[in-house]
Amino acid sequence: MTGYEAVRCTLLRGGTSKGAYFLAGDLPADPAARDDLLLRIMGSPDPRQIDGLGGAHPLTSKVALVSASTHPDADVDYLFLQVGVDTPEVSDRQNCGNLLAGVGPFAVERGLVPASQGHTSVRIRMLNTGDLATATFPTPDGRVDHTGDAAISGVPGTAAPVVIEFPPGDSPLLPTGRVRDTIAGIDVTCVDNGMPTVLLAASDLGITGYETPEELEADTALADRLREIRLTAGRLMGLGDVAHTTVPKMSLLAPPREGGTVSTRTFIPVRCHTAIGVLGAAGVGAGLRIEGAVGHDLARLPEGDRLRIEHPTGFLDIETDVVTPTGEGTEGALPVARRTAVVRTARRIFDGTVFPRPAERAPVGSG
Questions:
Q1: 83 contacts 42 by C-beta, under 8 angstroms
Q2: Which residues pair with 68 in a beta bridge?
Q3: Strands (DSSP E) along the chain, which ranges?
Q4: CB burial class (10 A; 0-12, 13-18, 19+) of residue 193?
Q5: Are 27 and 361 in contact (CB under 8 A)?
Q6: Residue 315 and residue 190: Cα distance in Å, rounded?
Q7: Could you tell me which residues are beta bridge partners of residue 83?
Q8: Are residues 262 and 201 in contact, defined by beta-carbon separation less than 8 angstroms?
Q9: Rounded Cα–Cα distance for residues 201 and 252 (Å)
């Protein structure tokens, strides 16, 4: 392969997103050269991404880089890259729990992890944050089987279930050290259960929280308000200047309407998600478990760990267990997430060779 004129690639739907999966070694080691290549592969910058694999939306302009891991508690490393649609940007500032659903099957199919009989579990280190996850999926006869009867909202049909379990992370669940903060006159709860997320009551922003993503995206006053809150929340959460990043996510909460736990509308950061990301839902679920947090009084909390998070195209079921340490020396301790698990699906769409758009050449005579 000379000059990266062709690259081995697998396109997978992971959860409610779609992305290009690569072995990290098949791409340039230099981040700048790698990102330039990925922009040309995905067809960015262009609002239609007409000359590449991207689907003209952040949810379909994603990349997963997978490699064997040297971490003692992981089999593979997974680096998520969000590729801009109409901007020449490639960001590694966040995880993606949707593409995470495809990492295990991809690792087995590319020979990084041997398949077991029946089911295979792949331990994954998410390089964006250092967090760990374990994905378990069917491998009858020692091969990945993408077919099954598991259904998730936002995806037609059914596929094999991928059970993803997240151990407790090292980051504090409440990164500001408080259950509530007030930003621009709005009460918020800042949580990080694998993804920095800001929880807000939709009614506090003058909306119902049941609007369509298109209606919310057309509300320029709402967009300005959310941007102001997000920039301040980012600093409070220790993320620095988030003006040009996609985190923290902003999740607007309202009482459930379809028998679930809570209704959500999530921004990523200016486009409204047509569903909700896995890690974003993990943040919402953990936040709802905290007494006094924004959304706790809106939610219909069931018995047991499983919560049904409603979103614009259906729901996502997630299991969360949040506890506050007790006993000697724990006075004033903040809640921690002890367990988070979710059932997702993934499906291989194609495996083959992708041909990037040619690199732009410098004009003749340029210095």
A1: yes
A2: 76
A3: 7-14, 17-23, 62-68, 76-83, 90-91, 118-126, 131-139, 161-166, 181-183, 186-192, 196-201, 249-254, 262-267, 306-311, 314-323, 336-354
A4: buried
A5: no
A6: 22
A7: 90
A8: no
A9: 6
Look up tokens 């290549």; give the residue: 37
Token code pair at residue 61: 């302009």
Which residue bears the tokens 């119902």? 208
- What is residue 295's DSSP assignment? T
Report the C-alpha gap between 336 and 193 in whole angstroms.
9
Rounded distance, CA 287 to CA 290, Å? 5
Residue by residue, pLDDT tens for the chain (367 residues) are 445 689 999 999 999 999 999 999 999 999 999 999 999 999 999 999 999 999 999 999 999 999 999 999 999 999 999 999 999 999 998 899 999 999 999 999 999 999 999 999 999 999 998 989 999 999 999 999 999 999 898 899 999 999 999 887 778 999 999 999 999 999 999 999 989 999 999 999 999 999 999 999 999 999 999 999 999 999 999 999 999 898 999 999 999 999 999 999 999 888 999 989 888 999 999 999 999 999 999 999 999 888 999 999 999 999 899 999 887 777 788 999 988 999 899 999 999 999 999 987 544 444 4
Residue 72: beta bridge partners? none
DSSP letter for 159, please: B
Instruction: Find tokens 């800001």 and name the residue.
Output: 198
Give the angle subtended at the CA of 166 by the CAs of 191 and 287, to the nearest 5°.
25
First to last CA, the chain: 29
- Of 180, 175, 217, 214, the closest CA to residue 200 belongs to 180
Peptide bond preceding 45 in cis form (omega within 30 of 0):
yes
Relative to beta strand 249-254, strand 196-201 is parallel
The rounded distance, in Å, linking the Cα atoms of 287 and 292 is: 9
